[in-house]
Amino acid sequence: MPSRAEGSKGDVHLSVERRVKVIFNPNAGVGRFRVDETALRDEFGKAAYRAGVSLDLDIEKTSEMGHCTEIAREAVRSGFDVIAAAGGDGTVMEAVNAIAGTGSLLGIVPIGSGNDTIVSIKGDASRSGCIEDIISGGPSRIDVGEMNGMLFLNVVGLGLDAEINHFVADRRSLVRKIGPALTYTYGALVVLMKFKPHRISVSVDGGDAEEHTVSLCTIGNGTTCGGGYRLTPRALMNDGMLDLSISPYLGKIRSVLNIKKAYSGKHLELEGSIYRTLRTMEVVGLDRELPYHIDGEGGYAERIAIRIIPGGLGTVHAPAGAVLE
Q1: What confidence tens digit (pLDDT) does each residue in 27-58 have?
Q2: Nearest alpha carbon to residue 140 among 114, 122, 128
Q3: How far is 269 from 287, CA to CA, in rounded Å?
Q4: What is the DSSP letter of 33?
Q5: Phi then psi for 160, rounded to 5 degrees?
Q6: In the 8-state DSSP scheme, what is residue 224?
Q7: Hey, what domains does the chain have and what are their CATH numbers?
Q8: DSSP for 118-180, written as a single string
């Protein structure tokens, strides 16, 4: 139900300044990121009081995959100023697919296992900082990616990255025990033992197709995925471009040794690595269907078409280098 969180400056009573819809995934979160609805509402109320803002706040829980998109579309129709996704990267992606191209602004309350999307935008996943943005942050425009008709905000991963993501997605209890980064590293070691490199055809910005035998192929609007792995470390969310990182297959032993390099972005130093920016891209799996993840949500496809939509989303979180409207 909607509630009113009011702040004051001296004896001046403030009128409602911002209507906020929070779409809360109650199943998200591990460790310090996990929170219940009562605590979340309290955090918003205290932050609004500190900021001297009178806040019209409505929190609604999701019940299944895809529900966040439905709630967000209704929130857009209802005219909320900010629609905030309280969950992980998958919850954020669902909200983006409803909000992009509208007059509403995206907010993110990071309570997922990885929270890579907000790290890619702001550089950190401070929940209190994000709530402050939602209450009083000014609007910024950031780019949105599209893959086979689905919008994404952070990263699309193909090949080994996606296979590891699928492995981790099936082991949520392990993520809760040891955290996303350690689970991702463990998954990488397990998956590599059975991994077969992918032969792919890549066409960039309408150019000629090139064939590659790869372990990793990552397309990033943001920098970070897998709980901290910087696979596209030079990406910017407001430059009108996507970043492409391709790592060749160098055998199992060298691939294991290079996992640590990928965490810091130093995998780009590997022999045969490719890194470039692009606006459109088409990838075809030449030997089998390609496993993919799009902002952490996995699947398979024979052909993948990707493009950037410059400035396609309004948000209250200003990325580094962004100019406020």
Answers
A1: 887 666 678 999 999 999 999 999 999 999 99
A2: 122
A3: 27
A4: G
A5: -60, -45
A6: -
A7: 3-138 (3.40.50.10330), 152-311 (2.60.200.40)
A8: HHHHHSS--HHHHHHHHHHPPPEEEEEEEETTEEESSEEEEEHHHHHHHHHHT-HHHHHHH-H
